[in-house]
Design a protein that fits this description.
The protein is of the alpha+beta class. The chain folds into 2 domains: 77 residues; 93 residues, Ribosomal protein S6/Translation elongation factor EF1B (Alpha-Beta Plaits). It is built from 3 helices and 5 strands, in the order H-H-E-E-E-H-E-E. Strands 1, 2, 3, 4 and 5 form a 5-stranded antiparallel β-sheet that branches. Strand 4 and strand 5 form a beta hairpin. Helix 2 runs antiparallel to helix 3.
């Protein structure tokens, strides 16, 4: 009976040892490998989500850049080149006469660099009825070109009611073509 008890004990030990050995030698390493693979997949999915977010942001930035580019082109279209300045000066003079003012006396100052563009200051002096002068200013404002009036002096004339003399600087922004390579 001793042999059969030892045989049974050996059988029981073998039956317990085989599953335990299988767990330690086969299943545990596979579970570790599966866990690492899951972590790697999770990490890659996170990175993919970040890449998708960046890609969508890049598309938005690209769209915004296109809108800005179109805006700049629109503004640049309103800027005459240096060769067109004489035409703008004639337009301003014509607007004054059409508005019922005296032909303006103009004195051109030296062009000034204004960031990426140039600014041509014109010192103007004109006289006439204030209502006509106001109409002239509205017409200048409606010109398709970019202009500004940085300073203005208006003096009332005693010869007739509503008459005045205006002295002001009209600055016309333009693109300097001398540096262009066309």
């Amino acid at each position: 009976m001793k042999k059969s008890a030892m045989g049974r004990t050996a059988l029981i030990i073998t039956m317990v040892a085989v599953p335990m050995a299988s767990y330690w030698l086969v299943f545990r390493p596979q579970n570790d490998a599966i866990g690492q693979a899951r972590q790697e997949i999770e990490h890659k999915q996170t990175m993919l989500a970040k890449l998708r977010e960046e890609t969508s942001r890049n598309a938005d930035l690209e769209r915004a850049n296109e809108e800005i580019k179109r805006g700049i082109e629109t503004i640049e279209a309103r800027l005459p080149n240096s060769k067109e300045l004489d035409m703008i000066v004639r337009q301003v003079s014509d607007l004054a006469v059409q508005s019922g003012l005296s032909s303006p006396q103009m004195k051109s100052a030296k062009p000034v660099k204004a960031v990426m563009y140039m600014e041509q200051p014109l010192e103007l002096s004109m006289s006439g009825n204030f209502k006509h002068f106001y109409e002239f200013l509205i017409r200048v404002e409606q010109l398709p070109r970019i202009t500004r009036i940085p300073d203005m002096k208006i003096k009332r004339m005693d010869d007739a009611d509503g008459n005045m003399k205006a002295e002001f600087t009209l600055s016309i922004y333009f693109q300097d073509n001398r540096g262009d390579k066309q």
